[in-house]
Amino acid sequence: MPGTAPCRLWRWNINGIGIRKTLPLKSLVFLFAALALATGCRQDMQNQPKFVPQRGTSFFVDGRSVRPQVEHTVARNEATVDDYFHTGLLNGKEQDALPFPVSAQVMARGQERFNIYCTPCHSRVGNGAGMIVQRGYKPAGNFHDAKRLAEPLSHYFYVMTNGYGAMPDYSAQLTPPDRWAVAAYIRALQLSQNATAADLPAGVKVDSLTDIANSEGYDASFAGPWAMPQETNVQAISPGEAPAAGAPAQPTNPKIQSHPAIKAPNGEPSKTPSPGGN
Fold this sequence. Notes:
The protein has 278 residues and is mainly α. The chain contains nine helices and four strands. It has a domain at 102-195: Cytochrome Bc1 Complex, Chain D, domain 2 (Orthogonal Bundle). It is elongated. The termini are far apart.
């Protein structure tokens, strides 16, 4: 601009090839010094600021990189809680009581968890004829037989916590509150199949299952007793009866027969036919 001195930071040399820019000596020295400092501040991935377990450090006053646990810290799944809420036992015995008041929300939660985890074996009505039992698995407990009706409420919590017979424990899938909610819902299922007119509040009328079946057009057997599966493909065998390693498994159901491979005309074994002929 007129009246102002031009900036001499760059010097321009024009030759036959083109325009060449050169920096002053002071600027070059500053640039190389900045690059040297940047190189000294380099942080590689193998040199990470971290604490190696069981190795000392000068960061803390006590010189330990591993810090002591917070007082009263309990590791996951290692809590030694022995009260009724967590064990279902009082003085080593099962009790017929919930550790908290029952409510509609508790029953709804119990029904939801029961339908998710319990119905495959016990069915939605709790008669022990779930879908996998109908397909040949070992029959599950029937909550409506005399043995289960006589069990105290915390028995079901205890079984869900520790397992029983062929049933594994469900402590990983169900929290203690959920186990109690499922136990309460099991009791409601039992009451639904064994309630009498005296159990109804005054002024409440409930239609019989037979009348409901007739009005809905169902067969008369709909209101009859449940037909429990009598056969199972799961059998307990003694150690002496165990088949040798590599031996073919024998069907436990006599209706299921194994078929030998059929030789094809070319001498190669063909596909083994299925029991249904497909």
